[in-house]
Amino acid sequence: MRHLMSPLDFNVDELDKILDLAADIEANPQKYAHACEGKKIATLFYEPSTRTRLSFEAAMLNLGGSVLGFSSADSSSAAKGESVSDTIRVISCYADIAAIRHPKEGAPLVASLKSGIPVINAGDGGHEHPTQTLTDLMTIRSLKGRLGHLTIGLCGDLKFGRTVHSLINALVRYPDVTFVLISPEELRIPDYVREDVLRKNNQKFKEVTRLEDAIPELDLLYMTRVQKERFFNEEDYVRMKDFYILDKQKMSLAKPDMMVLHPLPRVNEISTEVDDDPRAAYFKQAQYGVYVRMALILTLLEVKVC
Fold first, then answer.
1. Which amino acid positions bind carbamoyl phosphate, per UniProt (predicted)?
2. Which of 18, 28, 286, 293 is the most buried (most CB within 10 A)?
């Protein structure tokens, strides 16, 4: 039995097989429409979510399975003080696989150690978000045709942005990837990512403050929101939230084939005027998330479709 806590839980060959399977699901959805009949996924979301929770549920429904779970800690026995370990032991009696989002780093890992079913980390605090990373990889590979030989700008909240941390961890394993880390001083990438991931892997990267200075060289721009829920101080959030706004003027500085990704939800860091730009790929990205999670469910449940 395998779990997914981090993108590094799969090697590059295994990641490629999941992405190949997701691409086949996109091309041949009917082939997989009954693959998980009789199977159930439990979505255990201790934090609010729209895309991640609903895409997991859509993925299992598209595979012919069913869904149970909760969408906030208040609607679960966590409100009564039940531990994650006890919750997953109970859920293991009801479902075949579980996806857990939790505000505390490491909570899904704790659950996986006590679980009788595969557990997927659907986001733990500011730490990791591996299924978003699989979604990002599929989006990049589908739209750019490759996962190596790219210059990628990561912009916004790089300190608390778990999607950024997971994506860097995954992409350092591909050849000739250069990272341009665009953030204010207060929201720079954490030291452990800079030292233990980037420098340890001799990765090419630079840190800049101005998006306008970086955007002309990028093959891909990954925007993130400044996350209000990660701030202890309202004043700090208000000061940071409008630091970067991607608009038509900034897009005019970019390459004709530069793609814009965003894990969503956005607040105002991408102007709605950018939505009609053919380089804006963030809504396609959300669709790819369903195919990737379908592929991941099949892989962890060891369901083979001929």
1. 51-52, 101, 129, 132, 264-265
2. 293
Residue 132, annotated ligand binder? yes
Tokens of 15: 């990641």
Question: How far, in Å, CA of 13 to CA of 287, rounded?
Answer: 23
Q: Which residues are marked as active site? A: 51-52, 80, 101, 129
Q: Which of 151, 132, 137, 144 is CA-nearest to residue 265?
A: 132
The pTM (predicted TM-score) of the whole model is 0.89
171 torsion bin: left (phi>0), alpha (psi -120 to 50), beta (else): alpha
CA distance 75 to 60: 22
**Residue 35 contacts residue 59 (beta carbons within 8 Å):** no
**Is 19 annotated among the ligand-binding residues?**
no
Distance of CA 273 to the CA centre of its chain: 24
Phi/psi of residue 267, each to 5°? -110, -80
Phi (first) and psi of residue 289, to 5 degrees:
-60, -35
Per-residue pLDDT of the chain (306 residues; tens, 9 = 90+): 999 999 899 999 999 999 999 999 999 999 999 999 999 999 999 988 888 999 999 999 999 999 999 986 665 566 556 799 999 999 999 999 999 999 898 999 999 999 999 999 999 876 788 999 999 999 999 999 999 999 999 999 898 888 899 899 999 999 999 999 999 888 899 999 999 999 999 999 999 999 999 999 999 999 998 755 544 566 655 655 567 889 999 999 999 999 999 998 888 899 999 999 999 999 999 999 999 999 999 999 999 998
Residue 225 assigned to a binding site: yes
